[in-house]
Amino acid sequence: MTGAESFIEVDSCQRAKHGQLISGDVFLSQSVKQEGRIVSVLSDGLGSGVKASVLATMTATMALKFAASAMDMRRSAEIIMDTLPICSVRKISYSTFTVVDMASTGETRIIEHGNPSFLLIRPKGELTIEKTEVRPERWHDRVISFSSFDVQREDRIVFFSDGITQAGMGEFRTPLGWGLENVEKFIREKIDRYPYISARELSRILVARAEEVDGLSAKDDITCGVVYFRSPRQLLVITGAPFNRAHDHDLAKMAERTSGRKVICGGTTANIIARLLNREIQIDMRQQLHSKVPPSARMEGFDLVTEGTLTLGEVLRLLEEGFAPEEMESNPAVRLAAMLLDSDIVKFAVGTRINEAHQDPNIPVELDLRRNIVKRIAQLLESKHMKRVLIQYL
User: Fold this and answer.
1) How far apart are CA 298 and CA 22, in angstroms?
2) Termini Cα distance of the chain
3) Is the pLDDT assigned to residue 367 strictly greater than 50?
């Protein structure tokens, strides 16, 4: 299987321990583009709150750097353990970590220390994972596990902090906690019911369930990461008219022939495509009037039609601040942001014709910054959400 045929979706969800403003767990990801790899790290710092967060951040940052550089992880683990400060109470420097290093070919390497065992969820068939355990030379009380295997399409690797497996500990129904077997059973049931559930959705559902098991009051930091190996989900976002009006027909052909989901952002752009494809535009008046962005529209062959720069600006804000679409009132910006996160390969077709409606000096200057907004959205999608983004200027 080649990299062009597959995509690695990575996402996570996190909840801080009840009463804490900051989580002691840290999840980081990095794309190694030249090698077609994505490296993800989950670290759980000793205790909770700020001190735990510092330990976890140091651990995750170092582990990510070492794994991305292909440095020997046995040596890396010793460096991490030697670097961490000693807890004044427990007299140990302790922070767990799980490193998932996956290539676009499916080749996968996982290093674990202290966290619950990762789960490989394969919808059809099973794969026996062999783990090699070693003890660092200067830390004989610590065990590090190494695994190496090839994933197939639709395989998911789910890994988490002990806030999930120990959820509900001490309760009547779960005296020893939720447990790894019950966690795996829950995940498999969800995937059986929703075979193509995204990494983002699955991580959120699992964290929400752990909170329920904990009585809706997290007794520990809860973090879940999911790596999903699958066929890419593609999205085309068309915004702005071509600089040369003679290229309007090329834009319409692109819009009609591109596979996957398609979105138009901009009234002028939508009118051009509707005219050349002989389609009708219908304004969706079901949207709340107090929404921050203008209402969306419907057009045959397109998943969403929205206003242009205002909507894209709101999408950028949502992505920068972080949001949960299922917890927000739906509007065109929320829907578009959710589509971007649920897609793997995003192509922006950006027209460069000046919109005369935005030349009024009374209108804020940022309304005419379509290209800059798209660039910032693309950077966020690539760096924070590990998407593959293409921008074509017309």
Assistant:
1) 42
2) 33
3) no
For 88-110, b/e burial (b = at least 16 CB within 10 A) is eeeeebbbbbbbbbbbbebebbb
Instruction: Give CA separation, 238 vs 37, 308, 377, 379, 394, in Å.
Output: 29, 10, 14, 17, 10
Tell me how far apart the alpha carbons of residues 138 and 135 are, in angstroms, rounded to a whole number.
8
Distances from the Cα of 144 to the Cαs of 40, 90, 180, in angstroms? 17, 21, 19
| CA–CA distances in Å: residue 349 to residues 41, 111, 233, 234, 346 | 33, 40, 17, 13, 10
- Least confident span in 89-98, 138-147, 173-182: 89-98
As a whole number of Å, the CA-based R_g of the chain is 23
Q: What is the pLDDT of residue 283?
A: 87
* Antiparallel, parallel or unpaired: β 234-239 and 261-265: parallel
Q: How many residues would you count in the chain? A: 394
pLDDT tops 50 at residue 1: no
Going by C-alpha positions, the residue among 298, 271, 279, 276 that lies closest to residue 287 is: 298
- The CATH 3.60.40.10 domain(s) of the chain lie at 3-230
pLDDT in tens, 53-84: 998 999 999 999 988 887 777 777 778 777 77
For residue 57, give the nearest of 221, 261, 266 by alpha carbon.
221
The reported pTM is 0.85
Domain 3-230, CATH among 3.60.40.10, 1.10.600.10, 3.20.20.140, 3.40.630.30:
3.60.40.10
User: Nearest-5° angle of CA 136, CA 140, CA 144?
Assistant: 50
- The whole-angstrom separation of Cα 142 and Cα 113 is 8
Q: What is the pLDDT of residues 152-205, one digit of tens each?
A: 999 999 999 999 999 999 888 889 999 999 999 999 999 999 999 999 999 999
Percent of the chain past pLDDT 90, that is, above it, reads 62
Give the number of other Cβ atoms within 10 Å of residue 286's Cβ.
Answer: 8
Phi-psi region of 364 (alpha: psi -120 to 50; beta: other; left: phi over 0): beta
